[in-house]
Specification:
The chain is mostly beta strands. It contains no helices and 28 strands. Strands 2-1-28-27 form a four-stranded antiparallel sheet, with no helix packed on it. A four-stranded antiparallel sheet has the order 3-4-5-6, with no helix packed on it. Strands 7-8-9-10 form a four-stranded antiparallel sheet, with no helix packed on it. The chain is globular, with a radius of gyration of 18 Å. The relative contact order is 0.14.
């Protein structure tokens, strides 16, 4: 089987090419020309040209042997952030690769990280323990929420709120200005593995161990639509036009789903290669998946 990054044509639903190397996570540059790949156990970030697949930059991100768990580009394209099993987040200059900031989280391994749309803040998740927000210009932590069992987090694209899902099937929404938990939604009885706002933040999608995709109204918390699936749902992303949702499934398949239709999710790939991350390119023409396993 193949490990590394697989690049799919969304229209043709076909595999275009692959970038080898064991990885759990990647991120597109905002212009869609490059991808940052977390080299799982080497402690490095590899920057690749999306068209050729060739490596154009290598960043010594964390100590060798530390597992890189997440990577994200800032929306303004200036920064790349990574998190690792040494409980640290590091922020790099996207052009030079130099370290600009180092943040240290709780004693648990750092999980997901995410920039806000202004490229001023980073949200980080300490697995099963807490969520922290870091202010880049001030170089300090500005928000912390103790959330036992927290598994995923996403920034609202236009407002100062974050949504997080936990192992008990709950979704909590926090206002970052007031630092209050302004809404809590029960999204099933099993773990919520991922959560993703759409492009304008009016809705978000959740998925997890109860094998169900759910679309929610952000303002009211009302359930808009649900779609059952055959296996647990692990990672979710929206197409830039919000016309499709892509997700990784526990049966080693990639799927796309049109939340506006009654058609069931469609498989994009054959089984046998576990995907740990999935994302559409900024122009929506390609879908990338990260595969840590294989030969």
């Amino acid at each position: 089987s193949t490990r590394g990054i697989q690049i799919w044509d969304v229209t043709e639903r076909s595999l275009k090419h692959s970038i080898p190397g064991s990885t759990r996570a990647f991120a597109f540059s905002p212009d869609g020309l490059r991808i940052a790949i977390a080299n799982e156990r080497a402690g490095t970030l590899r920057i690749h040209d999306i068209k050729t697949g060739g490596e154009i930059q290598l960043i010594e991100a964390h100590s060798p042997g530390k597992v890189l768990l997440a990577v994200d580009y800032s929306p303004n394209g200036r920064f790349i952030a990574s998190s690792a099993s040494d409980n640290s987040i590091r922020v790099f200059d996207a052009k030079t690769g130099s370290v600009l900031r180092k943040f240290y989280g709780d004693k648990k391994s750092m999980g997901a990280i995410s920039f806000d749309q202004a490229s001023m803040r980073i949200a980080s998740l300490s697995l099963y323990q807490s969520v922290q927000i870091w202010d880049l210009p001030a170089n300090m932590e500005t928000f912390r929420a103790r959330r036992p069992g927290v598994l995923c987090i996403d920034f609202h694209p236009t407002e100062p709120i974050v949504a997080m899902g936990d192992s008990g099937g709950r979704v909590s929404i926090y206002d970052l200005n007031s630092r209050l938990n302004v809404s809590q939604i029960t999204a099933g009885k099993s773990a919520v593995r991922d959560i993703a706002f759409n492009s304008d933040g009016s809705r978000f999608v959740t998925g997890g161990d109860d094998r169900t995709l759910r679309v929610w109204d952000t303002r009211t918390g009302a359930l808009i639509k649900s779609q059952t699936h055959n296996h647990a749902i692990e990672r979710i992303c929206h197409h830039p036009t919000d016309s499709l949702v892509a997700f990784c499934s526990g049966n080693d398949l990639l799927f796309t789903w049109d939340p506006q239709s009654s058609v069931k999710p469609k498989a994009l790939s054959g089984g046998g290669v576990k995907a740990d991350d999935v994302a559409f390119s900024p122009d929506g023409a390609q879908l990338l998946s990260a595969h840590p396993d294989g030969t």
